[in-house]
């Protein structure tokens, strides 16, 4: 069965410094992977997705993620954090072959950005 | 304006009462989903529907019921049988459910408090 593990429940950075949010996945087949962001009391917004095309995926707001099959990882990065990046981030996996499968969410990483 | 609407944003109920959460989408999506979010738990799937008049249980369906009479609408009823109903509920939709899961678009959520 597929699963996803977000390795840090909370990450704190200073404004202008790099962001790294770590995600490992487990999937029996070629997965689709996503990162979503959620601001307090809001719905989720898709940041980026990997669906077996380029392994380096660029998303919105300067975020990107690299799919590494050998490490079963899909870490999210941003070169320079902004105060508005403070939010909760979810790594998500889905099977690409099985009909009727919904998304599997990690437990989330809360990103704090200080000035 | 295309998107997913959930109403109300905040809902308060007494224990023992059933309550229905609304979810409407005008994205012409076939598939719709209900998730429950608790602090530190990520999102857990309650029910999903691939087409009108069809729906399947997710991981935590006990104490919940749904209907899908129209493509645009997927209401969720939280029944008195749900032992711990206080949570943030998120509705989502996607263009297609099946081989190659597609990203889901989320509504703004409904925070339900039961006392």
How would you characterize this protein structure?
Chain A has 115 residues and is mostly beta strands. Helices cover 0% and strands 54% of the residues of chain A. In chain A, the strands form three sheets. In chain A, strands 2, 5, 6, 10, 11 and 12 form a six-stranded mixed β-sheet that branches. In chain A, strands 3-9-8-7 form a four-stranded antiparallel β-sheet, with no helix packed on it. Chain A is globular. The model of chain A has no long low-confidence stretch (mean pLDDT 89). By secondary structure, chain B is an all-beta fold. The termini of chain B are far apart. Chain B is built from no helices and eleven strands. The chains are: A mainly beta (115), B mainly beta (115). Chains A and B meet through strand 5, strand 6 and strand 10 of A and strand 5, strand 9 and strand 10 of B.
Briefly characterize the structure.
The complex is a heterodimer of chains A (115) and B (115). Chain A has 115 residues and is mainly β.
Topology readout:
The complex is a heterodimer of chains A (115) and B (115).
Chain A: E1 3-6, E2 10-14, E3 19-21, E4 23-26, E5 31-38, E6 44-50, E7 56-58, E8 64-68, E9 73-78, E10 87-95, E11 104-105, E12 109-114
Parallel strand pairs in A: 2-12
Antiparallel strand pairs in A: 1-4, 3-9, 5-6, 5-10, 7-8, 8-9, 10-11, 10-12
Chain B: E1 4-7, E2 10-13, E3 19-25, E4 31-37, E5 43-49, E6 56-57, E7 64-66, E8 76-78, E9 87-94, E10 105-106, E11 110-114
Parallel strand pairs in B: 2-11
Antiparallel strand pairs in B: 1-3, 3-8, 4-5, 4-9, 5-6, 7-8, 9-10, 9-11
